[in-house]
Design brief:
The protein is of the alpha+beta class and 336 residues long. It is built from ten helices and 20 strands. The structure holds uridine-diphosphate-2(N-acetylglucosaminyl) butyric acid. Uridine-diphosphate-2(N-acetylglucosaminyl) butyric acid binds next to strand 13 and helix 9.
Length: 336
């Protein structure tokens, strides 16, 4: 079923809670709706969104915004200790992860609490606490808006990388309809990130639900709750620098420089760089660098404008560039 609304306010369709309008909003409940939607769009501009959890509407969107309400989930066995879960693109990832955890199914529990829909988990290759969605994705089904055909991508075709996939680069081509995850019915915990292992109480029986609870507790200690404070999660990516640059940072810093090895290079937490620049709590109008995790810019007043968020972003970029010679890259998609 297709629902069409004209001159639609996107405030509830972006987790920054910014007021922005689009010419037309189209929701659809089935992959079979997409040929008709393609005909409706014709040569007009469009974009497909999920929950809008990683978007910054810098302005009104002069075009059509599509949102999937494909909500069915189909689970089939895959050998003796695995399951394949084919999940509609419009399903809330966290609701699906909660359902897996309650049925003792392993695989996605480290991604608990991340806002967003299943479709976006593939686009963005969302990740947290040592797991990326792409690690679990075996197939992505999509509708190719350019040629008007249904297509399937195997894991390797998706070209998953840090917060990246082929779908980010072919944004106006593929509308994702289903994502299939390979999950495990036997224990498969991933506990090596940060304090995750430590934060599980010693006497707890290890289960997907126990890991989910630990992850949710760690997240709520640092990250703003999207239903209460508008944000789009991490605003910047963690930069990767060469060994020479890392050595320079070490010489420049009085404290240890946190890092993760990535091949020959070093990934530096952007949160640390921003923190070292003294920018926690930096604000312009209603937009602010979140004190507890400065990688996040929030709509603190609930009335922040896109211009205020962009001004905070520009200040952070400038300060980190001037202090460390590092050009941060935004993780959030800017929509003009
Ligand atoms: N740090 C500071 N000051 C702070 C906070 C953090 O210096 O106030 C430094 C600390 O050294 C800390 C390090 O930053 O050890 C890393 O912090 P954290 O573990 O919170 O992770 P992150 O690298 O900042 C990434 C993801 C998050 C994800 C966490 C946990 C990116 C861009 N962000 O953040 O993802 O939840 O790891 O896995 O990779 C998101 O994408 O929206 C998101 C929240």
């Amino acid at each position: 079923m297709i629902t069409r609304l004209q001159d639609y306010n996107l405030r509830t369709a972006n987790t920054f809670r910014l007021d922005a309008r689009c010419d037309e909003w189209i929701e659809y409940t089935s992959a079979e709706d997409l040929p008709a939607i393609r005909a409706i769009i014709g040569d007009r501009r469009y974009m497909n969104i999920g929950q809008g959890a990683n978007l910054l509407f810098a302005d009104d969107f002069r075009g059509i915004v599509l949102q999937s309400k494909i909500l069915d989930v189909e689970i089939t066995p895959d050998g003796s200790d695995a399951l394949l879960a084919r999940v509609g693109a419009g399903v809330s990832m966290d609701a699906f992860i909660a359902q897996c955890a309650s049925q003792s199914v392993w695989g996605l529990e480290n991604l608990s609490g991340i806002p967003g829909h299943a479709g976006a988990s593939a686009v963005q290759n969302v990740g947290a606490y040592g797991v990326e969605a792409g690690d679990r994705i075996v197939c992505v089904e999509a509708y190719d808006m350019t040629i008007g055909e249904y297509v399937e991508f195997g894991h390797d075709d998706c070209r998953f990388a840090y917060r990246d996939s082929i779908f980010k680069h072919e944004r106006n081509r593929y509308v994702i309809t289903y994502v299939t995850y390979r999950l495990s019915t036997v224990p498969a915990p991933v506990l090596d990130y940060g304090h995750l292992r430590k934060s599980l109480s010693e006497d707890c029986i290890l289960s997907p639900m126990a890991v989910r609870d630990a992850v949710l507790a760690m997240r709520s200690a640092k990250l703003p709750e999207v239903d209460e404070i508008g944000s789009a999660g991490s605003f910047f990516k963690n930069p990767v620098v060469s060994e020479a640059k890392f050595a320079e940072l070490r010489r420049q810093s009085d404290t240890d420089v946190p890092h993760y090895r990535v091949g020959e290079d070093y990934k530096i937490p952007a949160a640390w760089l921003i923190d070292q620049c003294g920018l926690k709590g930096y604000s312009i109008g209603g937009a602010k660098v979140w004190e507890l995790q400065p990688l996040i810019i929030v709509n603190a007043s609930g009335r922040a404008t896109a211009a205020e968020i962009l001004a905070v972003e520009a200040h952070v970029l400038r300060q980190v560039r001037d202090t460390y010679g590092i050009e941060l890259q935004p993780e959030v998609d800017h929509i003009y």
